[in-house]
Amino acid sequence: MVVHSLRIPWRLIILASLMLVTVLWSGCYPSNPQSTFDPAGRIAREQLTLFQIIFWTAAFVFVVVEGALIYAVFRFRKKAGQQPLPKQTHGNTPLEVTWTIIPALILVVIAVPTITTIFAQADAPEGEVVRVKAVAHQWWWEFNYPEVGVTTANELHIPINKPITLQLTSQDVIHSFWIPKLAGKTDMIPTRTNAMWFEAEEPGLFYGQCAEFCGTAHALMRFRVIAQSQAEFDAWVAAQQAPPAAPMAREFGLKGCTVCHTVNGPDAEGVQERRMDGFRQGQPQFPAPNLTHFATRDTLAAGLLERSDDNLRRWIQDPGEVKPGNRMGELAGAYHNANQSLSDADVAALVAYLQSLK
Ligand code: CUA
Fold this sequence. Notes:
Elements: H1 10-28, H2 42-75, H3 93-122, E1 130-137, E2 140-145, E3 150-153, E4 155-159, E5 164-170, E6 175-179, E7 183-188, E8 194-198, E9 204-209, E10 222-228, H4 230-241, H5 250-254, H6 271-280, E11 299-300, E12 305-306, H7 309-317, H8 319-322, H9 327-338, H10 344-356
Parallel strand pairs: 1-5, 4-10
Antiparallel strand pairs: 1-2, 2-3, 5-8, 6-7, 9-10, 11-12
Helix pairs in contact: 2-3, 7-10
The protein binds dinuclear copper ion.
């Protein structure tokens, strides 16, 4: 049998390596909206510093250990005409003491800044803070500001240069709260409340993302953080506290939207009653985003789509097509079969109503 020698296509290997490096590098590039290498607040910056200390220490260990290994492999490989076994040695006290002490020192180098950072970040600084209770749902985010009585969804407004303290929990499964440029991940666990805090130093838009696999639409469970001046934040709070800008559209109640969604204000009377009626009739229900000031948000479907008439129409008509697996898609089927399907006129009325909720 003839065995052809396998020729290694070096050019291909180099090309593939370059492509891999490009992909990895572009993922970490600071201009990426979800890069952790471009912190915009104290918490994220301290976490990045800690990461760099550990990364470069590990890189140093890797180079030294792998370098020694490669050197040994080539330097002490079997040579032609060599005796069967080189001289064997056992035990070398100075060497063994050295390779115990050096790793211990390396661990100290890593442990000191790690423990310092953990303790420094544990509690929010004294003084005025903004408190937010964040509740994760499959697959959207609820944000409550208990001190000012505001509830919103998927867009977290915060003032700059002020600690934001978060109480994090979940309505259903485990999620994880993550704003790469502002703060590292914290788990959101049902029946338990986790705490974290962060601060933004400059106004801007920051992207958040669920960082724990939580089901079908996990990858589409996004949110936005809008960091603004104290005056802009106060104006936003005042706008959110106002009653809804329009009376509730007839279709909104008739088509089952109120089974899951809340719109505050006088029109909310009777909504709870209808909700309980539906529940007694065995209709499934899930808490869904509060829509009182829906039209003050820039996005819909947990940050997935820009808020526009077209996108809203698409979303109401077929939520399951826009965001596969989501609850509204699941329930729309149940309700529209139970009641009657949504006509184009119904959808148009709902779009107009929601867009009027400034
Ligand atoms: Cu929520 Cu992943």
